[in-house]
Amino acid sequence: MDSIRIQGRVALQGKVRIQGSKNAALPVLAATLLVGECSFIENCPRISDVHAMISLLRSMGCTVHWHEKGVSVDSTQVRRGEMPQEAVTGMRSSLCLLGALIGRCSEVVMEYPGGCVIGARPIDLHLSALEKMGVEFTEKGGKLKAQAQNLHGAQIQLPIPSVGATENVILAGVMAEGDTVLTGAALEPEITALCRYLQDCGADIEGVGTGRLLIRGGRTLYGTAFRVPSDRIVAGTYLFGCLGAGGSVLLERAPGEELGAVLDAAGEMGAKVCTAREGVYVQAPDRVGRVHIRTEPYPGFPTDLQSAALAASVCCEGVSVIEETIFENRFRIVDELNGMGADIRVQSPRIVEIRGVERLAGRHMEAKELRGGAALVIAGLMAEGESFVSGCPYIYRGYENICRDFRELGARVVSV
Ligand code: UD1
């Protein structure tokens, strides 16, 4: 089931329920290590990145079970802070295990983490923040070894609001001796979710949802039940799918309040959007209007939806511009889209200009990373005739079942 076959040009209608958030679930799962008791994580998405994180937790001694409504993690017996290579190099989010394991075991050995191939993705901010908290890093046989005899609070200022570095400081900070003051923290809702989970466990964190966090370390943490919020990126993907293919849909449980910049862009493209208690309603225009999108840290337009917006814009009226300010090398789908008949010109590694065309023609495409892969599915929905997207394991890292979800909306999409 490595490919997806799409019969395009079917307007989307109906409703689809949005899964739990990948980027919230992964750090929360890492945080269960700090608790030393059993936690129940509800609404955890059944995606391959979550399965990989669960394998990592098991390899460290946690007992993890799937239930109908979520996953239980018992971390009473954490034995070791060494992570198996395959799991770490395949998943960028394994990086937040660094802060969690330092907090729990005082010593960690790990490979340099992987993730999607979008830009250089350095980890210097993670390392320098943790060093301020008393962690010493050495290299051991090409691996990264971290040790902290005396993990302590610190004053940390992040020069860039890195999501991952913010998570690591929080995870280490709740276990450290004394207070940690983190300024320049990322504001992403997934950080708030992590803090809420830790607060429910008994952690003392002030300033949640702001760029200045005060973490009073050393509190005893207890197991708790926590519900993972809905995935704003999956919701945004389906929204742009609707804009590209046409139609009107209800994105059930979509977190409208976290999608401000995305709904603004959709509005600029001519969509009618309405946020309600049950989710977000979207009605696509007959033809998408031109738009200027610039990716930014939250609450700006998310880099994770840049490819979906790009795909949805290729048949726009006039000329659209997309600027990517977070990662380089994130326009990897341009050649595939141009091969379908799009007219996208790469002005610089960070800016593309999209001259709207009348139609796209279906073809074979290859997913090379998670969000770009989902965007190719959107392009297939827009195109005349049949399209195939191969390399779909990338997509399954973040989407529970993208084919089922688009079928719920009437699209003709199957995995083959
Ligand atoms: C980023 C996104 C996040 C998204 C995730 C998965 C932002 C701000 N973050 O999180 O929303 O869910 O990718 O695609 O949009 N950086 C350094 N040194 C470091 C760490 C980061 O220079 O040690 C730079 C990165 O190169 C990047 C920026 O900081 O330009 C933001 O990166 P960061 O937020 O850490 O990335 P992720 O945590 O992977």
Topology:
Blueprint: E1 4-7, E2 12-17, H1 22-31, E3 38-42, H2 48-59, E4 63-66, E5 70-74, H3 85-89, H4 96-105, E6 107-110, H5 124-132, E7 136-140, E8 143-147, E9 155-157, H6 163-175, E10 179-183, H7 189-201, E11 204-206, E12 212-216, E13 225-227, H8 232-245, E14 247-252, H9 260-268, E15 272-276, E16 279-283, E17 292-294, H10 306-313, E18 319-323, H11 334-339, E19 343-348, E20 351-355, E21 364-366, H12 370-382, E22 386-390, H13 393-396, H14 402-408, E23 412-415
Parallel strand pairs: 2-14, 3-13, 9-10, 17-18, 21-22
Antiparallel strand pairs: 1-22, 1-23, 3-5, 4-5, 6-8, 7-8, 10-12, 11-12, 14-16, 15-16, 18-20, 19-20
Helix pairs in contact: 1-2, 1-4, 1-7, 4-6, 5-6, 6-7, 8-10, 8-12, 10-12
Uridine-diphosphate-N-acetylglucosamine is lined by residues 23, 92, 119, 121-126, 160, 162-165, 186, 188, 297, 302-304, 326-327.
Describe it for me?
- The chain is α+β, with helices and mostly antiparallel strands and 416 residues long.
- It has helices at 22-31, 48-59, 85-89, 96-105, 124-132, 163-175, 189-201, 232-245, 260-268, 306-313, 334-339, 370-382, 393-396, 402-408, and strands at residues 4-7, 12-17, 38-42, 63-66, 70-74, 107-110, 136-140, 143-147, 155-157, 179-183, 204-206, 212-216, 225-227, 247-252, 272-276, 279-283, 292-294, 319-323, 343-348, 351-355, 364-366, 386-390, 412-415.
- 32% of the residues lie in helices and 25% in strands.
- A four-stranded mixed β-sheet has the order 21-22-1-23.
- Helix 10 (306-313) links the parallel strand 17 (292-294) and strand 18 (319-323).
- Helix 1 (22-31) runs parallel beside helix 2.
